Amino acid sequence: MAQSRRDFIKRAAALSAASYVGISLPINDHNIAKAEQGVSWHRGSCRLCGVGCRVELGVKDGVPMGLRGISDSRTNFGFVCMKGMHFWKCMRHPDRLTMPLYREKKSDAFKEISWEQALDIAANRFGTAFRQGGGEAVAYYGSGQALTEETYLFQKIMRGGLQSNNVEGNPRLCMASAVGGYLSSFGADEPIGGYSDLEKAHCFFIVGSNTAEAHPVLFRRIMRRKLDNRETVKVINVDPRVSQTSRIADMHLQFKPGTDLALLNAMAHVIVEEKLYDEEFVKTYATFRKGKNEKTTFDDFKAKLADYTPEKAAKMCGDTFSPDQIRTAARWFAGSKGTVSLWTMGLNQRKRGVWANNLMHNLHILTGQLLKDGADSLSLTGQPNACGGVREGGGLCHILPGHRLVVKEKLRRQVENSWGVPEGRIPAKPGLHTMAMFSAVNEGKIKAIWINCTSPVQSLPNCNLYNKGMERDDVFIVCTDIFHTLTTQKANLVLPTAFHFEKTGVYGCTERRSQLTRKAIDPPGEAKPEVWIVREWASKLAAKLGDPVIAQCVKPFEGLEEGYELPKAIWDEYTQKLTAHRDNDLRGATYEVLGQMADGVQWPAPTREHALTGGTVKKFVKGIDPMADSESKDDLPYQFYGPAHPDRTLWIWLRDQADPEEVPDAEYPFYLSTGRIIDHWHTMSMTGRIPELLRANPYAYVEINPDDAKKLGIGPGDMVEIKSRRGVNILPAKVYQGPVEGMVFVYWHDQHKDRMINKVTKDAIDPGSKEPEFKICAVQVKRVSGPTPLKPFIV
Amino acid sequence: MRNILKRSVKTVFAVVAGSVLIITAGAALGAADGSLSNHPELSQQEMLTPCADCHREATPEIEKQWYASVHGIAMVKCYQCHGTFETFKVTPSREDCATCHADMLDKCPTDKSCWECHVPHMFKERK
Amino acid sequence: MPISGVVITGAAEKKQGLLERLGRLSGLEVYGDDDQGNIVAVLDTASSEAMEMLIDRINRDKDVFNVGVTYLNTEDEADRMTLETAVARPFGFKNPL
Fold first, then answer.
1. Could you list the residue range(s) of the whole structural domain that residue A761 is in?
2. Which of A89, A335, A430, A464 has its CA 20 to 30 A from that of A544?
3. What is the pLDDT of residue B24?
4. Banded pLDDT at A299 (limits 50, 70, 90)
5. Sheet holding A167-169, edge to edge
């Protein structure tokens, strides 16, 4: 051992010297490192946000020991963020779930049981619920962090097997409004361009997104672009809160929460008044709409904008900036050689989130800042596979795989025929959206619910209300997860799953890019990949209900090895049968192709040849997007073949400013907004178990503007009560020139009962997207005491 | 192929031109380079404070340099390079830089430590 | 027990003789050479002091222009040194602590 270690060092020494003078020695450093150190590096995607950074996990003796960015990857060029570089450290945490756990009543203690018993129980309880109440009595609530293969298989069993469209997932809480926006403005979900525009952009319009903390590696690309071109590249940041993202901004427009629609309309006003729009582009490719079936004209649009002069809008936005600043922003936006807009929850988590998205797209359509290098209307996604798994894979109650609407009979038939199940098996009516689903749990209408890889107990708005339902003993809850969460505390059955890199599958990130992560190590104990769990459960369910159609749903996957062969077969079925000729055509992106790519493939990728080039960088552009050519109807260079706009045009929407559901009044005088911080991910079940990350932000605090703090007599570190009509938190104060006066801000990761801000937030939803308005509600703010020692809390 | 070295391997790079050897050791265990011995003792509670909060006053020059640097803007915080209290080291290793900059380790001279060319905390290149 | 990787640069036309002399030194192993007179070698000595002496010895050879150390591993000594000796100029500080 000592000898071989010294040999290794000697060879390393020789290689170092040789590389200095360019002598090639007859020994290969790659092989030496592997042979001598036993470290192997495994390619995959980062587990955390929606950027889709590519990383290599270093594994020695079956144990993860390091992580590095992949410099060839077009998403991150080798860079990783604070969370990303540490996430692998939770893989071998002693808290990992390693055995199935069961309790009959929710007040009982969990007991370890075998997989055989666990799957029997799950099949029995779902079978019984189905017999009593049909498909409406069962539900699946999934995650934008599940692999595409997992979401696809879960929804297949629910729809094809249990005849239920009660298939939802946490992406409803974060990007449903973005889906609505893309469909209603461009006729097709997901962005036209992607990250490659960032290096070519001359103006960035960042609204409702703290990119620096929520998407740090993309922020790095924007920062680099700005710092390398300080004079020529403009950054406009639009947010009620000054954040880290504002540090690179030339202009920060801080406005009264909920008035962003007025601001976006005012920018359109300036663009129209000053004739900054691209007349030719608008004439050729756009039409104007008041409603889905209500066309209108440019003149109507112009008349509508008369209500949004910069002067009027500045007033509506709270007089925090001047009308001339709006004019400047509009001129920069329209006049740059390429403008990229980026947004996240700030626009989406709103009662009129779809409208906010429409107004954002309006600016791009008007100015023609689309379809060309350095220009895009780019909605950033929060989770690593909200786009790939949930939006594309059929993970919401109203959509089927391949961007198909449940309500369209022809599309349901296509899916049923692909699966070999009888026509009519998939109900024609969409299932319950997330908030309706948990309301049905509250009412005891849903008898069995499977919650996969997410923690609604903490992540639903107004969560006190919905937690009552999850506590009911007549609602059977299965959780599949790697750690206990606040939600497993309300479950009857907790099934331990394999983590990222312990199983194989595909994540699809923000920019239509699908990337493969292959299994690198075994899961601990008896933890199993979800695809195995679902297959085995479905087989038992078929036997229990005596239903051969359920068996048919998993027949193609019987007996396949679960680490690679099983997910591969699921991916093949999904891509070859269900994405064929759809706008997210992934037929060329087989495991074989994805395995060769440093990064992955952007759809449409109908053929292997196209996929091997990396796929489609810009949708709808002939010569770049193969479907723009194959679906072409005329000689124009852009072809909008998306499924939602039969007229094949881009739609400019007439939308008014709309206030949030709840605005401050005499009793609840402050706005509350919530958000994220760089060191933590969602409900902290992973990042809270990594000492470096926990230390960096051990508990939530409330950010208060110094002027407000002075009025309320609140000093730094003082304990402050934040109370809404729904719930209350007590948190330490951070007095900080961040939130606009009259608004407080809390991040939502903390699991502690006193600091869980979703007890306070409001569950109003967008009538179109059904996405809740997490971002705005009204609260009281009161000093409770001086600084108090606090302890971090993880279940 | 990248230079693959485990973090705990104590590797020293010396200057080619001379025979003066700069010896620094990567710290395998908490504060193994003795660097925390000068740090005021902290309670468990105080250890839950981000480094920069105190160092804004304790070492203002360094905090300012970091804050204004690309690492400061991109939110690469103290703990990524220096570790936390258990793993603290004054001098990060090349492998710490490799997490993000593996390709630069291939391109840069192997006989120098990163911070000989990239000024610590400011990360300005090649003076 | 330090190990180092070195590039020994000598007169190209006298390389053969130099290689023979180097071959007789204990603790030195030649791994490769090129036409410009560069020789890649690994030095393996009992201590850092011995390492410096060996490098000095090579430097004194009449046909050697320069000895460049590109790599030095002192993992056995490192623990001892970090416990006993403060680092002369720590990372990030202009002056010694």
1. 670-785
2. A430
3. 29
4. very high
5. A111-112, A101-102, A493-496, A476-481, A448-452, A138-142, A167-169
Spatial CB neighbours of C12, under 8 Å, sequence gap ≥ 6? C35, C36, C37
Q: Is there a domain that residue C58 lies in?
A: yes
- Interval B5-42: pLDDT, tens: 222 222 233 322 222 222 223 222 234 455 667 788 87
A463 annotated to bind ligand: no
Rounded to the nearest angstrom, the minimum Cα separation between A46 and chain B is: 13
Q: Is B75–A67 a contact, with Cβ atoms under 8 angstroms apart?
A: no
Contact of B74 with chain A, judged by CB distance below 8 Å, is answered with yes
- Give whole-number Cα distances, A315 to A208, A256, A307, A471, A670, in Å: 20, 10, 12, 47, 19
Asked whether residue B111 is assigned to any structural domain, the reply reads yes
Gap from A11 CA to chain C (nearest CA, Å): 8
Q: Neighbouring chains of B at 3+ CB pairs within 8 Å? A: A, C
Task: State the total domains in chain C.
Answer: 1
Q: What is the pLDDT of residue A98?
A: 97
- Phi, psi for residue A518 in degrees, rounded to 5: -95, 150
Count of the separate structural domains present in chain B: 1
Number of domains in chain A: 4
Question: Is there a domain that residue A648 lies in?
Answer: no
Q: Is residue C51 part of a domain?
A: yes
Q: How far, in Å, CA of A376 to CA of A619, rounded?
A: 11
Per residue in B41-75, pLDDT tens?
A: 877 777 888 888 888 888 889 999 999 999 999 88
A558 in any annotated domain: yes
Give the CATH number for residue A518. Answer: 3.40.50.740
What was the pLDDT predicted at A670? Answer: 98
| Residue A634: per-residue pLDDT | 96
**Chain C residues with CB-CB distance to A4 below 8 A:** none
Residue C90 has pLDDT above 50, yes or no: no
Is the CB of residue A11 less than 8 Å away from at least one CB of chain B?
Answer: no
ipTM: 0.80
A456 lies in the same domain as A584: yes
Domain boundary among A576, A608, A629: A629
Q: Do B3 and A692 touch (CB under 8 A)?
A: no
Instruction: Select from A6, A13, A18 the Cβ nearest to the Cβ of C4.
Output: A13
Residue A28 has pLDDT above 60, yes or no: no
Q: What confidence tens digit (pLDDT) does each residue in A519-528 have? A: 999 999 999 9
What is the distance between the alpha carbons of residues A675 and B74, in angstroms, rounded to a whole number?
18
For Cα atoms B115, B117, B123, give the angle at the middle one, nearest 5 degrees: 65
The reply to whether A792 touches chain B by the CB within 8 Å rule is yes
Give yes or no for C47 touching B (CB within 8 A): no
Q: Is C97 contained in some domain?
A: no
Q: Residue A489 corresponds to which tokens in the numbers above?
A: 């505390």
Q: Is A603 annotated as a binding residue?
A: no
Range of the domain at B85: 46-117
Q: Which one is predicted more confidently, A566 or B81?
A: A566
Range of the domain at C14: 3-84
**Would B33 be classed as within a structural domain?**
no
Say which residue the tokens 């009027």 belong to.
A312
**B108: nearest CA in chain A?**
A20
Q: Are A256 and A305 in the same domain?
A: yes
